[in-house]
Amino acid sequence: MGLTWLITGGCGFIGRNLVKNLLDDKGQRIRIIDNLSVGTKQDLYRVCSPTDIEFIQGDILDPDFMVKSAKGIDVMVHLAANTGVAPSVADPRHDCMTNVIGTLNCLEAARFNQVKRFVFASSGAPVGECEPPIIETIPPRPVSPYGASKLAGEGYCSAFFRSFGIETISLRFGNVYGEFSGHKDSVVAKFIKCLMEDNPLEIYGDGSQTRDFIYIGDLIQAVRSAASVPGVGGEIFQIASSRETSVKEVADIIMDEFKKEQSISDIKVQYSEKRTGDVQRNFSDTSKAEKMLKWWPETELRTGIQKTIQWFLQ
After folding, report:
1. Is 146 marked active-site?
2. pLDDT tens-digit series, residues 125-141
3. Which helix (H) or strand (E) element contains residue 112?
4. How is residue 244 annotated by DSSP?
5. 229 exposed, middle or buried (CB, 10 Å; 0-12, 13-18, 19+)?
6. Which of 45, 146, 177, 215 is the catalytic position?
């Protein structure tokens, strides 16, 4: 049965992929809010027509705007955020306002409008430095302000479930990559853009730091499951590939696949100082999501990178 969705940050990378997926499922009604600080309406209209969705420009930091925007909504997917470790280290206060107060405003809007389900885009960053694989029961010790702000969001989601009965689900996304990631500064998108501009690949540290890279198509299926599976209110789930991959390994795959696509051979790599706030090892155990959400990743890393490179080149 069709639902009415509200997607915050719907003009962004994940938001556009979610919109595209929902429109393939007839009967879904979609409302998008975005302050256009990163994505644009033109970006959005590359995956849908203006008549397919309802777009409202506004900011999650405006509580009255959020309450009005959430009227008649069945599921709210909260993607709008200040993303990434480096921006949070550069400006912790802005990170806090966007990710903590902004999330509280969204939850309050859901409460006032009796929204049934609230899906929160979190991250592995709340856990901080630990011995992986990361599971949901590890005590969080954030390393970066970004991790702290996402942890606060998870805490508010838990409180609104237990105090007000809103079925909140926090999804701790791994390092997401894939189509429509042109504005992203994360590893895969950044490396591909460097190659397209004939710039050297910049690796922070020695490249041995590991991450859990998840293809966008798999992640969208996790969001859809979190929005529909019964009995998961108040839960946190690791959403990743359950595979540990070093940044250098990812760089090697990208260079290898890019050479095949573009028939080039001379690619330079430069190493820089390790960034403040970065953890050394990070990958997840997704068995809880498999058990409760009936979800698991299906796309192998090289296959996902091939698709991503092809999208950038096109």
Report:
1. yes
2. 999 888 899 999 999 99
3. helix 102-112
4. -
5. middle
6. 146
